[in-house]
Fold these 3 entries.
Entry 1:
Amino acid sequence: MKTVLPLFAFLAALAVPAVAADDLSQALPPKDMTWSFNGVFGTYDRGALQRGFQVYKEICSACHSLNLVAFHDLAAPGGPGFTEAQAKAIAASYKIPAPPNDRGDIFDEKGNRLTRPGTLADHFPPPFPNEQAARANNGGALPPDLSLIVKARAGGPNYVYSILTGFGQTPPHGFVVQDGKYYNPYFAGRNISMPPPLSDGAVTFSDGTPSTISNEAASVVTFLSWASEPQLEARHRIGFEVLAFLIFLSGLLFLSYRRVWHGGHEDTGTLHDYPATPTEKH
Ligand code: HEC
């Protein structure tokens, strides 16, 4: 008992800070979700990718850039599966800053930036011309580029999903929601500068999927996961092919081992099909 007591006190002392830190400002662990693209054979759900693109385009792109994704990616294998014509039309619906015109101007008479329609080769244009403008429009906070956000955050898709669906909860008693911020228990510090971006019915999905917050969030998370790892399906397929080949090769090697060395141990160490002592031909 004498030795157990100090040990017990030591463990109790260890537990105290954990309890204290578990209070109001520490983020909750992300929700545990199942994604079609998880696991060795995982693939992206095409419908979710296209719906997620719609959510990004209609909602998130007002504040977040997607710098690493080009319009031609939308029609690339393993992606959202738009046809090239659809991707072209999507690109053309965006305005890209134009190069200087014949007079060397990049602004028109009213001071607006000259633009041209996007092409397949263009990347998604950012919503703000620079970081200062982005911060000025978001209460000083910078909306991060979303191209790699799923890879960049611990918890990946579960984390982004939890952030998007984590608004609207009543803060625990005594928690201070800072001015211009919103309570979100999945965000570090639980005070986030992003206003709740999703709401029921915020978009109208053309495939008839009900636009609940969770469907909108799951779709845009699938889309952003693809943006973070567009080669995932190819990687999974190649992995499977390599494994299948290795299994086949192992079988082949085993059979040739049996054929070549068959009986090698039983008799005098001679090979199966060959005479024990070479005989000379006459
Ligand atoms: C009105 C502007 C606005 C809109 C619309 C918006 N966001 Fe944000 N978002 C922000 C700002 C500002 C931050 C930075 C928050 C902070 O640092 O407190 C942010 C942060 C984030 C983060 C990062 C959290 C982290 O760990 O750093 C994610 C993920 C995110 N937004 C996803 C989205 C998605 C997906 C959408 C579309 C459904 C969206 N946002 C729509 C302004 C916006």
Entry 2:
Amino acid sequence: MEENRATQNSIPTSTAYWVDGNDIIIKTSLNWDIFADANNGVGNKTEEIVNRYIWDFIIDDKTRRWLSGFFKRVREDKKPVIIPYRCDTPALKRYMQMTISVESEDILMVKHRVIKTVPMQKPVHFRASISEKSIKRCSVCNRILIDNDWLEPEKSMIGEYVSVRYGVCEQCESLT
Ligand SMILES: [Zn+2]
């Protein structure tokens, strides 16, 4: 499969935000907005997120519990954790890495880095839904649940526009 490193021109491949002890976003890295723009609304602009709870931006309980489990662990152990995840766009599989580390006291730095991108065999536009009938999608590895199997989108028969409800698959849950 063809690989495509996300290093063209000035598009940053990593960005970060910081949360205080109450999980309120206190700042972002200087390139945050460029990163958000380059990623087509995958991120929110700095002015929209600073001084708000990180949890306001995570829709489902399972993903919240998943991430807050890591926050708790890093604050307790004072040791960084590195977590692989995916943040796909309709046309690209984006392999990402999140590094959570203690900055000072209870302040955490959460850094996101693009490791590599791989074109989708066919584009898929996912739309978040809360309907029980929607297909489940893991917000960490971005796979979808079809007949009890977590599959890559192109390995399933889904169409181009798909409503999904977000959660965390068993494999990603076992990372915490
Ligand atoms: Zn997963």
Entry 3:
Amino acid sequence: MRTFREDVERAVSYHGHLCSGQCIGVKMARLGLKTLGLDPDVNPKTFMSLWNVTVVLLTRLES
Ligand SMILES: [Zn+2]
């Protein structure tokens, strides 16, 4: 299983920069996969989808 840091680095390369929304998004995505019993290494698209949803929700909450 990837570490939190590895997932953040992956999110940074996808998103383009490091921001607080990404750290929270990665934590929420990891928690979501764990809750659903899914392995992020086996389900990378599900991980990125959960991460995207969290970042979108956080962005809307901030505005
Ligand atoms: Zn950002």
